[in-house]
Amino acid sequence: MAMSTTSRCVLLLFLVGLAARAASGVIDGLLPNGNFEQGPTKSQLNGSRVMSPHAIPSWEISGFVEYIESGQQLGDMILPVPEGSRAVRLGNNASIRQKLVGLTRRTYYSITFCAARTCAQAEKVRVSVVPDSGVLPIQTVYTSSGWDCYSWAFKAKHTTAWLSIDDPDAEDDPACGPLIDSVAIKALHHPSHTKTDSMLKNGDFEEGPYIFPNFPWGVLVPPITEDENSPLPEWTIMSDTKVLKFVDAEHFKVPQGKYAVELVAGRETALVQEVRTTPGRSYKMSFAVGDAGNGCQGSLVVEAYAAQGKVQVPYESQGTGGHKRAELEFAAADKVTRVVFQSMNYLMKPDGTLCGPVLDDISLVPLPKKHRRLFL
């Protein structure tokens, strides 16, 4: 039977769609078998330990790697799994790796993965895409489930690369180590500006790491000491070991758009961006401060400063959402001005996990020159 014109058109569009998908390279979302639901056969396991390097489809393993099922008991500890029913645990000298294909050279990518510690208080996870690597501390837990999702960014040097996740520390018990689940990738785009009249880039935080749609706790963004590329384009997180949280409107109250950041670590973390300015020229920065509607109650205070200007913005939170606008006017002292945001207080939700104010919709504009003398 001859194919109709309509059928031929549909087939052509389908093939064009497939070609575009292939040409686009890496697709945002879960890596192949990124949730480890496809596992080893029984013959490839010794108890829960994986005995073959290629036993977990799409992954290559080395060292003491265990294949964990949700609810599995370790001593007096029951191991949960955040999504699906399976995860892996990295013991001594253990690593998992997957080959990333279809990368675009000189493009930035963010890896999102979820992790939970089991034995040690000071467990760490190392993420590597050669030549970049970062060691992410996971001793501070930001969710009541014990699982947190972390992000880490790299710049692609080639069209293919090996992503490796491992436990950099050796424990007394070779089976001790972090649980890993749900590994995803996302291409990052560095926007020129968030608004036509704003000098700041990504001030609305609409560009950031991948957030799993079924996970209600956001994604942690590491400090520059652990990741110089930053999964939050144009912004730098200044801290020794603490993070900030990237949150979405699907699970949190967000002042504007689809995404915002929650300052969960008090004064231990600062959010920073540098912007070109004219010395002596006056500027106005405006932004939204509120709560994420996640039960974080109490006195939230965000401090913002740039050049010699500083403002503290209080917000009394009932933990049910809401925000208010704030402004800071300052005069630039140099050709480059550093804009900084911090949470002044440490707060906890009723479940004992850290929380803080939500920050969003930041813009920076020059004021008319007649304002200049007010700040000199």
TrEMBL record:
In this protein, which residues make up the domain named DUF642? 29-186, 199-363
Judging by the UniProt lineage, the source's domain of life is Eukaryota
Gene3D superfamilies, per database record: Galactose-binding domain-like
Q: Which UniProt keywords apply?
A: Glycoprotein, Secreted, Signal
The record ties this protein, via InterPro entries, to: DGR2-like_dom, Pectin_Meth_Modulator
Protein's cellular compartments:
Cell envelope; Secreted
Principal location class: other
Q: Which GO terms describe its cellular component?
A: extracellular region
Q: Which Pfam families match?
A: DUF642
Q: Which interval of the chain is the signal sequence?
A: 1-25
Q: What is the recorded name of this protein?
A: DUF642 domain-containing protein
Per the UniProt record, the source organism is Eleusine coracana subsp. coracana
